[in-house]
Each structure stands twice: as structure tokens, then as C-alpha cells.
Amino acid sequence: MYNNRITSLGTPSTYRPFDKITREEASKILSRFARNVIGMEYKSEVSNEMCIFPDNTLISNDLLNDVFESCKMGLFRGGTDGFYPKGSLSKAQSIVVLVRMFDNQSYPESSNPRFQAYYERAYELGITKDRDLTNFDGYVTRYEIALMIYRFNIKYKLLKQTSDTIQAPIEFISILQETIATSDGLRKANASVKTEFLSNESFAASIFGDNYRIKKRKIDNYGVGNTNFIRFGDLYTANEKTFLGSTSFTVINGFIEEAYIRPTELGNKYYVIKPIPQSPYYSVEEKLAE
After folding, report:
1. Do 68 and 62 meet the contact criterion of CB atoms below 8 Å apart?
2. Reduced to 3 states, what is the DSSP secondary structure of residue 48?
3. Is the dihedral of CA 200, 201, 207, 210 positive or negative?
4. What is the signed CA dihedral for 286, 208, 218, 274, rounded to 10 degrees?
5. Which of 153, 138, 144 is nearest to 17 (CA)?
6. Whole-prediction pTM value?
7. Euclidean distance between CA atoms 223 and 261, whole angstroms
């Protein structure tokens, strides 16, 4: 953040990481991140008058321009009485701003809670994995907002490589070709994975150009609901005529924790699928059985 001129505070301690962050402070960090790192510009449909709030006199002089810019870029808005610059930024508000930043647009706010559409988009993008909306009433610390934009920057660059918005894979596994690496003859890559397929009796999967059909054998559920389970299955050729091996997928809170695809009839190679920090992507790695 310091190197990108997002903050002028040069040490972690002077940054006051565990203080709550106010809306005016957040507008500085997020607008400068949007401008300096993402390259966002002012929105033509946002007039200067829309960004001059009734309580502008309460905004710190050194943050007044940041609040104005965050509004002109369409990231922050005010309420009927003003911007509430000294109010603490909530987790819901941080999600709203990050989604507006990612998609460069706003969403309807007529639902209950108002940020519902932003939350659904944030969950789709992997910005949050929290399914309990009551947790978003809490406030954000200066450390949390720093961590958010650090992770957001990684996800933004990864997800924006080929498209302006993330595209849900139309297949169970979609390998990102530009990430494929080979070591000792074994391949590894990042991939998007559509976990919804795991509820199907069978589905197709293409891994490094090899096409398979994965059939369900049984599912062991854990806890309440259907978001924690292990799915055991059989692996076949794409035409379903030849049995090749076994599969297992461990899912926690709706996300794959680890998975194994073992075409043992074809040799001693198998595939491991695990989550990586660049959520919502996974690593797909080819390994040799011992």
C-alpha cells in the first residue's frame, strides 16, 4: 500500500492496523487503490454536485479530495443526510465497494438486506465465503481493509486475464491454459471448478486434454445441510464404456477441500485438486502413485 501511494504511513504500527476504519479513511485507501492499481476513472454519469455532501464540513481537510474521488468513481455514496465521514465502515459496505470496483457498476439495492445483490456477486467472485449475512453488520479494521485489497488485487488480476467479468465454467473443470507448468513430466495448472456438478449422478471432465466421465457411487454427508460431504465415484472413458478408476471429492462449506481423480487402469498417474489463495480457483496437479 505504501509503495503504491495508497497510504502515506510508512510502518505497520503507524498505520494503526487494529483501529476501526472510518468511511472517510476507507474512501482514501479504496479510491487510491482503484486509481493507482486498478486504473479506474471518473464516471461521466456522476456529476460533481452528486459528490458534494451536506456534511462535507465534517470531512477532514486532507481526505476531502479522496471522498470526492471515491464518489466520482462510483465507489462510495452518501445517505440522505450526508456522507457520514466519521462513521465506521461496515463489512457490508466494504463488500459493496469492492464489487462496484470489480464490475465497474452498481447493482439494485431494493432487497432486504440492501446489499444482497452485492453479496451474491461477491460470493460468486470468491471475495467472500461467508454465508451468514448477520456477520456483515460488524465493522472493519484498518488491517482488514488492507488485507481485503491485497487479496482483491490478486483475484482481480487473475480473473481479469481473459474477461471483464468472471465467467462460470461450462464444464466441471476449466484449465487456465496460461498457467500450465511442467516439472519432471508432470503437469500443474490453475483451474476454475464448478462444484455444483458434484450433485449430478454423472458428469464429463476434461483434464489436460484427456476426457473422462465421472459417475457417483455414494455421498457421505456431514453436519447440517448439504454443503459438507465426501463424494465417492467411478471414473470412465468419455463414452462410458470403459472403467478407468476411482474419484473422491471432499467438500467443506460448499468448496472443494481436496479431490483425487485416479485413472489407475491407464497407469500410475493421478490428479489432485486443491484450493489456492487465488480464490475461487483451484490447483490441478498431476502426480505419480508411489
Report:
1. no
2. coil
3. negative
4. 50
5. 144
6. 0.55
7. 25
Q: Which amino acid is at 171?
A: E
* pLDDT tens, residue order, the chain (290 aa): 888 888 888 898 999 999 999 999 999 999 999 998 888 999 999 999 999 999 999 999 999 999 999 999 999 998 888 999 999 999 999 999 999 999 888 988 888 888 999 998 888 777 777 888 888 989 999 999 998 888 788 777 766 654 444 444 468 999 988 899 999 889 999 999 988 899 899 999 999 988 999 999 999 988 666 788 999 999 999 888 889 999 999 998 888 999 999 999 888 899 999 998 877 789 999 999 87
| Strands 202-207, 186-193: pairing kind | unpaired
Are 121 and 99 within 8 A, CB to CB? yes
What the block records as the C-alpha cell of 79 is 445517505
Cα 107 to chain centroid, rounded: 17
Q: What is the C-alpha separation between 249 and 260, in angstroms, rounded?
A: 7
| 3-state secondary structure string across 185-234 | CEEEEEEEECHHHHHCCEEEEEECCEEEEEEEEEEEECCCCCCCEEEEEE
Domain boundaries, the chain: 23-159, 173-288
Cα gap 158→280, rounded to integer Å: 10
CB 105 within 8 A of CB 78: no
Q: Which residue has the cell 464429463?
A: 204
The torsion angles phi and psi of 252, rounded to 5 degrees, stand at: -125, 125
Q: How many Å apart are CA 288 and CA 9, to the nearest integer?
A: 49
Under a CB-based contact definition with an 8 Å cutoff, are residues 146 and 19 in contact?
no
Grid coordinates representing 35 are 486509481
